[in-house]
Design a protein that fits this description.
single chain, about 140 residues, alpha+beta, 2,3-Dihydroxybiphenyl 1,2-Dioxygenase, domain 1, binds zinc ion
Length: about 140
């Protein structure tokens, strides 16, 4: 498995528009994309920071993963996403090493990336996402 960089950091927020204003007005970053990912019941907003992105996640459904997360823990850092060169092989390798996967196979995430989550119980408490841009 080969990780090239941190693709993005996912941050759970209550209100996407208010949060975007903070990142733009206070931090001087620019939101370049807003996208709804129906599958995960979220609306996302993206900011480029070097080669890493900040992904803000607002729930569109209280029963969705981000809705439940905010209900339990409030706003904050939700997950960290690593860019890998081969997501299928990476998942297979991790499973063989006994790492608990949330997604056995990659699915489509925001920005057309193939993504899969690793269970935080297996990663010392961090929800980790692997992603691969298969368009490249
Ligand atoms: Zn993510």
């Amino acid at each position: 498995m080969s990780i090239s960089h941190i693709e993005h950091i996912g941050i759970a927020v209550k209100n996407l528009e208010e949060s975007i204003r903070f990142y733009e007005d206070k931090l001087g970053l620019e939101c370049y994309s807003i996208e709804e990912v129906a599958d995960q019941k979220v609306r996302t907003a993206f900011f480029m920071v070097g080669q890493t992105k900040v992904e803000l996640l607002e729930s569109t459904d209280p029963e969705g993963p981000i809705g439940k997360y905010i209900e339990k823990k409030g706003e904050g850092v939700h997950h960290i996403a690593f860019a890998v060169d081969n997501i299928d092989e990476s998942l297979k390798g991790l499973e063989e090493k006994g790492v608990r996967l949330i997604d056995q196979a990659p699915r489509k995430g925001a920005e057309g990336l193939d993504i899969a989550f690793l269970h935080p119980k297996s990663t010392h408490g961090v929800l980790m996402e692997l992603c691969q841009d298969k368009k490249k």
